Amino acid sequence: MNHINFKNITEFNLAQNLPEPENPLFSIGSKTMNVNKIQNCVSSNKEVNYTNHFYIISLKNIVSGEIIYGRTKYDCNTGTLLFSAPNQTYTVKDVVISSESWFMAFHEDFIRGLDIQKRIKKYNFFNYNVNEALHLSPKEEQTIKTVFRNIETEYQNNQDEFSKEIIISHLETLLKYADRFYKRQFLNRKEINKSLITRFKDILGAYYDKGQLSEKGIPTVEWLANQLGVSHRYMSDTIKAETGKTAIDQINLYLIEEAKNLLLAPNASISETAFKLGFEYPQYFSRLFKKKTGLSPKEYIESASLN
Length: 307
What we know:
This is AraC family transcriptional regulator. By secondary structure, the protein is an alpha+beta fold. The chain is built from 13 helices and eight strands. The protein has two domains: 2-188, Jelly Rolls, CATH 2.60.120; 191-306, Homeodomain-like (Arc Repressor Mutant, subunit A, Orthogonal Bundle), CATH 1.10.10. The longest helix has 26 residues, at 163-188.
């Protein structure tokens, strides 16, 4: 399998058949394609890995082919907004793109020292697996294209002291729209979300039933996401959107419910209960139990015996 490493934006533009960037740290461009034209940087019947050392935002309509991050395949759809952070690797195979496509690339040095550099780290969609990319409605797609065009207009103007500030302002607008549209996407995927949450709880239950809590400890969010085949950020956002609680909260709630069952067994030991549930220190288990129930494990046992 070929591996192409885009060290700079100039290399990326050449691979996309775009002009050399006006600024070595920033570039934007568009292409018009039809269903018979395969993206120029993709070799037919070959899988190619790509790694870029800068941010990429692209809007494209993919009609066939595959784009893969890790083990997950991108669910191709009309009007798709893709986000890639520096040093992420993705696999492309025979991708056919229709209609108008937009590409924006910017190096971290372009935003270094600005407020957007801090804020961009908080946008989870730069860390999502590619199959969790943003699918746009027709109206949303037009909104995003308008922002792309505004950025391109400023990019093509004669550069002056205001150019970068205006481009950054438009970029922040695009990211805010993307954040809004992602939240809409989460709401529209309730059935998918419910399925993911059900599988999340099933995995926790199987982990407990096999005695892995006592053997391996409490599973991490990253491990659970891997079992589900999604990124941990996507899993966390999905669970939070559907339940109002974080993935860690859901893990802790599961542990507390199991703890209640164990503590009501005859001659129950608080220390043994803690170890069975993966807690290395019984004191931590007791603090968490009281935080979630309002009672210490001992108080819970005593109150249950009175009922």
